[in-house]
Fold each of these.
Amino acid sequence: MTSAESAGEPDAPRPPARRRSPGRPDRRAARREQVLDTAARMFFERGYEATTTTEIGAELGLLKGSVYYYISSKEDLLYEIVEQYHRDTRTYFDRIEASDAPPLEKLRELITTETAHTATNLTRSSLFYTEWRSLSPERQRTIVAERARHEQAVLAWITEARAAGAVRADLDPKIATYAIFGMVNSAYRWFRPDGRLTAEEIGREFCELVLSGLEVR
Amino acid sequence: MTSAESAGEPDAPRPPARRRSPGRPDRRAARREQVLDTAARMFFERGYEATTTTEIGAELGLLKGSVYYYISSKEDLLYEIVEQYHRDTRTYFDRIEASDAPPLEKLRELITTETAHTATNLTRSSLFYTEWRSLSPERQRTIVAERARHEQAVLAWITEARAAGAVRADLDPKIATYAIFGMVNSAYRWFRPDGRLTAEEIGREFCELVLSGLEVR
Amino acid sequence: MTSAESAGEPDAPRPPARRRSPGRPDRRAARREQVLDTAARMFFERGYEATTTTEIGAELGLLKGSVYYYISSKEDLLYEIVEQYHRDTRTYFDRIEASDAPPLEKLRELITTETAHTATNLTRSSLFYTEWRSLSPERQRTIVAERARHEQAVLAWITEARAAGAVRADLDPKIATYAIFGMVNSAYRWFRPDGRLTAEEIGREFCELVLSGLEVR
Amino acid sequence: MTSAESAGEPDAPRPPARRRSPGRPDRRAARREQVLDTAARMFFERGYEATTTTEIGAELGLLKGSVYYYISSKEDLLYEIVEQYHRDTRTYFDRIEASDAPPLEKLRELITTETAHTATNLTRSSLFYTEWRSLSPERQRTIVAERARHEQAVLAWITEARAAGAVRADLDPKIATYAIFGMVNSAYRWFRPDGRLTAEEIGREFCELVLSGLEVR
DNA sequence: TATGAATGAGGCTTCATTCAT
DNA sequence: AATGAATGAAGCCTCATTCAT
């Protein structure tokens, strides 16, 4: 399903599902993706707890029970939605971290990419930040750990740049790190795909603001 | 600082409730405040939906039914908790806005105060930002409206300072506003009262970072 | 008119409570009577189940718990109200039955008296007819038995009069009996003390209608 | 479901519900009707307030939660039961009123039909008269308004007949109206389907009694 | 593939009642 | 004579989930 979500869905379309046999497209997987997308949108709009399986079914033209043909539990549904987002996050983060750009360049790249990613996956990113509490403790831990990894890295970059004299010595790297994530991750709350600025432009603004705040004049 | 809260409660104690008869402290109101505080902490720890009235009662040494001697509904309980925070917010915001300091001074003052406020009322601020969805539509509207008011004001301050040449012309005031609120309001997620830095110090860091990012060099 | 009822109370005032000692009026009994009257009115207006002890207390300027200083249970309260009415009913019924008037005269007397009684004790009679189900099985039985006794008597009177040729032979005495009670006992539903006709006039109308319907022309 | 309800149910069977697909009888609707009938009987026997959803479920071989597969709330359940009765009432009333029979003929027809209707729908009529207080204010209003309409019509008929000299001038039409409804509507309290007389016979008795009471000799 | 019927656990809330003060 | 705090039982209702068809 390359596309055409119901009007309210601000997320970018997921890539089409894999096909089992070339001749016969796997309809099940396609429908499954549809279930995920619909649920994601509804969770985004009303919250996870407030969305019932009955409602999800209705939105899909299915009865409550039929939804379980595609999912194994409501929590799994949420997890899968969040996991997709999470996975993407990991991907670009690993790439950036592995690069040999100077630390502030990495930071710039992370801010830009993460802002764009958040903005292009509004509903999923929103769920990632607001509904993780409804996941099982173990799954929460996975997510928290990954976030911590990102924070550690950013902290390390800033610390490194500071040691190298590129970042103001009078700033606390840890607080700066929190500030950056607070700023970037807030995008899901107010970004509108049809707004005045694109995700890229917003990323650039963030970089300007933060980096010129950090940098030694 | 009359009251010893259970260890987990990071919020500053509320001032004692009004007394009905001057000589004899109003026990009821005190207990009621205890209920609010306990519930606030539990909502903070597990989330509003995940906290049952049975659990709240148990934590207070009451049966679930008995909790209703002090509250009228679970949602009202949440609202009251959030409203206290909300009210305080309004108070200092109005004071700052009414002052005749230059716009960037107002901004500095707001960032500092709001950061401190968030940090000193960790659980309540947390609920304010994460559980407002569990409130009735009307109550949600109240909160959203107030937040919008703050954002409008900050936007106006930045715009004004920019027009006066005090803020870089290449930055978008609106994005800057969002960035500031994202930063400041993220404090409830990571601030720890027993941490290395005080709320005031964090506020100062934020100001440094943001203002030197905004200001024309 | 010894007692000042709240405006809505259509029942005739109960006689003042007995005094324990001539010099010191028994305040408790008086207050108790007030509780009965207030409860009776509220049960009448909202129904027994729908009236809470909290509300009864509030109406009396008391707290929930304090009401129990005067009553032993909510059901007892209802029973006592209904019992007063019941007792009166028994009194005049016994008097009529014991008289040596001819059967149709007794019938006339019963219709008149019962209509008047119903009308003068609107709330209590209403409860007698509508809320008896909330009483304990045993108490229900008492009431049902008494009503049956009245019906038996009326049936006997009509049968006797019919045997004597005073009542039409083509009418079924049992149905006539039911009809009469249905008619008379419906008064609590529509009688208004400030209406066009007095209770006595209504009683007379009933007699006219029924007796001329029954009597051989 | 043409029949054979559990022994205690004195109401006539409802006509079968509409079918969704012509070939396959709609089981759901049938079961739903069963729920209504069972609940009606239980409300009749113990009263609405005294009947719990748990009990209704048990009687149907269901858990309390499962009952809600067929109903939306306990009050809705009551309303639907009462509404069916109400609807029937309206139907025959409109027919009679629209006829061009002379007023006393209409009266006779109404008494007969209403008595029969009450008797053939004992439980529902009973609920109609005794449990309407448990309905929402708006629903109460609907019912009260309809009853008032019937009373107005009967009052008009009697008044008309009286003006034409067919009814005794010394009787008050309004009281006569109340008397008639009191009489007819009391049937649910004592009618037994297996009794000595049929509903039709009882209706005839009522007519005899009332009309010969009303008519000028 | 999807339905329909039911489960079962649990949630929020209400309320008559008690009892020490 | 009345209060305030709490109890405890029960009530209505919701919902994720299952499973035979």
Amino acid sequence: MQKILEQAVKKGLQKICNVTIDSVEFQATKKDFEGDFTIVVFAFLRLIKGNPVEIGTKLGEYLVENVTEVSSFNVVKGFLNLVISDSYFLNSFNTIYKIENFGFVTPNPKAKAVMVEYSSPNTNKPLHLGHIRNNLLGYSVAEIIAASGKKVYKTQIINDRGIHICKSMLAWQRYGNGETPESTSLKGDKLVGNYYVKFDQEYKKEITKLIAKGKTEEEAKKQAPILVEAQQMLRKWEAGDTEVVALWKKMNQWVFDGFDITYTALGVNFDKNYYESNTYLLGKDVVAEGLKKGIFFKKEDGSVWIDLTEEGLDEKIVLRADGTAVYMTQDIGTAIERFKDFDLESLIYTVGNEQDYHFKVLFLILSKLGYTWAKNCYHLSYGMVDLPSGKMKSREGTVVDADDLMLEMTNTARSISQELGKLEGYSTEEKEVLYKTIGLGALKYYILKVDPKKRILFNPEESVDFAGNTGPFIQYTYARIQSILRKANFDYQITLSKVNEVSLHEKERSLIKQLLLFPEIIQNAAANHSPALIANYTYDLVKEYNSFYQTVPILGCENEQEKIRRTQLSEKVGKIIKAAFKLLGINVPERM
RNA sequence: GGCUCCAUAGUUCAAGGGAUAGAAUAGAAGUUUCCUAAACUUUAGAUCCAGGUUCGAGUCCUGGUGGAGUCACCA
């Protein structure tokens, strides 16, 4: 439609004012004005001298005359509002009604793929609310990009080695008494996480003792025996000490098992995992190579650096004096490995905005190393999830645990549901599945509806809402539609004829308009890496539908054609809700 | 301190340089003989401050103020 209009507007302006315009921008007409599309005439004023109202009027007249779909127009100030005919909307609806995956673009199998990295946890503590945002965001962005017509690989880098891992290992060794997930009935990640906290407590005690003995705080922090021992353990690990490696494997496995449970509950998955323990060496070779080429330089103590002062950044270390890898080294290696493993067009890193600087440097280094794809790396930077008390810190136990939160959401869904008592005939199992669907729907929507860039302040005292602009609200609308479809005991999936003779209810028009936007929204969300756009769109659609549902009869229509049309409309809205929510990783229930 | 990001109803979020800044929630008032009231309808309430660019600024630029992040041989 917009294409037809654009052509016509260009031609019209040519004729009226003898001016050629490259492109015309349309916007949806605001609610308070009559019309469907709006052309801002002010935009032409740079090229055409004259009164905007006059130009708008002339253009409007031209369009009504030459474009059959335009039935009338009005000009307010410099805004030309076009009214599109009902038959156009009806025909459009009939077309999209039959398109099964309306809005989704099938990827070209030969095209290069997009890789999305997300989650990327440390294997020394359980996942918390911050990880939930990361996972939901990464998963959803991957789904959206796939829907927009790209092949997508989901991946993560598992930070499974380093001093932080040794800390929980050491604490377990010292204080664990051989505890296992089985013996304690704890999830593996929870058990290991407890020892990470335990380490920190002991470490702090030792620091206090040392300071009491007259050491400075700085000395104490470096000399605390438990820390020294952890460092020793790391060296043993790097040297391949069988005992340490065995312990490392055992405890990592506990954590992986725990993570799997959380990932499954969250509904996220990965096509390929990268492990830092496998890739940390790769970066070192690249650094050695870059050193030869003069991209990096060595300091007296043997550490290797890159000078980015010309680019307005600092010097950055890429290899420690003792030759061991740092975070950056590993990331360089992993990126190169990924482009080797897959035929990638781009690589998206879903990582919090506290690492903005790190990724700026990483991409710059990769580009200096001569990798042309470095410009196709993108840091999907999102805001932190903070508590009213400030930042979440695992070591200090000030975190909202992922599993606990999901459980809590399910419990809330259960109690609301039981209070409403609409689930006659559902088995206990069916009900439990439903509670999870609703509870997680509330949580996921709550997080994804916010622009990724913005930080989220989560107050555990105030629970996540289940009414208003929420996941359950949208799920509820879906369930209601399914109820209508169950009760529609006639064949509504037929093709309607005589579309040119009927007129639409105002609510039907706006509903169809909203449906037609879906493909554009997907493309937009993919381009902006923003699930929030999908969430907002779905909310608007549902709002529109509820209003429609409340004001006009559907199954109760006297007119047969109208009844079928409104049932079809309901069905399509349901399908779009389901598809849109799938992009957010949220399920929809048949009843609730 | 340098750099980066953020600032919109009491609160949580919207607004591709465009019209009278939208929702939700909390507040006030209504709607169940009818397709699920987790809904619908009505009502009141906001762009941090000062300049500038523009026909037009919540949005772009400059300077303040307030907040967050970062500037590690941690990841």
Amino acid sequence: MAAATKTFATYGYEGTSTEALVKSMGIGRQSMYDTFGDKRALYLEALQHYCFESVGQIAVTLQATGSPLTAIEAALLGFAARIQDDSMCLGVGSICEFGRRDREVTAIGKSSAASMQNIFAATIQRGKDLGEIPPEIDPKDAARFINATFIGLKVMARGGATHDDLRATAQMALRCLG
Amino acid sequence: MAAATKTFATYGYEGTSTEALVKSMGIGRQSMYDTFGDKRALYLEALQHYCFESVGQIAVTLQATGSPLTAIEAALLGFAARIQDDSMCLGVGSICEFGRRDREVTAIGKSSAASMQNIFAATIQRGKDLGEIPPEIDPKDAARFINATFIGLKVMARGGATHDDLRATAQMALRCLG
DNA sequence: AGTTTTCTGGAACGAACAGTCAAATAAAGA
DNA sequence: TCTTTATTTGACTGTTCGTTCCAGAAAACT
């Protein structure tokens, strides 16, 4: 499944052949069809799984550290430091490829974005309660902005931006929380 | 050409069939091949043209208004107000689809991003000179950040975000420049 | 050890793909 | 008006696509 996720993220749905999937997953073609049904079902399952894991990871990062602001900083800067050159996030890739054309892809994307933004908003609210984040900041707006920043970083990285560039961009984004 | 751009932006390179191009461009199949050579050449030409126009538009917006900060605000908020639901930017789409896999696509994307960011950086520098933008802000970092914000807004819009959400996100981004 | 289930790799299938060909029509030039 | 050039339309071509079929091998079960 992880191999399918990576292949779909790299080449997109249309650009990924079943041959490429069979190769990257290292299973027989018939087993792939027996297990997942068809290419689209495999894509949906990979996307669902990917989004679920991503939300889980963000939740762990933002809920583990004492200071909410530090947690958000760690999430953004950690992402900028860690993301691999040329990699693509399947979530962002699915939005770019399908827009809202496919109802199930759209549903997974919206659900995942909503969960992600709820976690950000809750963290922002905690930061406001603790006086770390200015009171005039709306948690939902800030959550959407952070999500947009993650998207921007992902596409930049996909296009070959350096880690320094990504980190500087993340630093700029964090200014609005101070 | 505009029709080809829109079709490629909507479906991506792999997802766009030559039949769809013939239909959207409203010309004969043979004429399309006579004029552009093949699908890939048409894509490259559409991408080049799209990026050139985008940079031109941003230049006009950012260089026409007296106040640099106001100009950047107008660019971001204007974009958030104007962008159409479900549309896709061919530039962002090309990065997401190809990453750095295709040398010519990558070259067009990097060149366009560099031009765009130079315009942003020059505007930021003017804002610093006029005291509108804090002196500790690095123009190149800010330029990259603004570009990342545009990317984030474009993908959000593609995923169905409302204009209010986009505007609020743009407002958050503008806080980083204050 | 024998039997059953699962997996593999290759072949086959029909549909879709990008690109080419050919004849007819329309537009441009003399 | 006639000739030349460009465009259109439909058909065609070989390749690739996603999916199914099949026989043999491997793994799991009794």
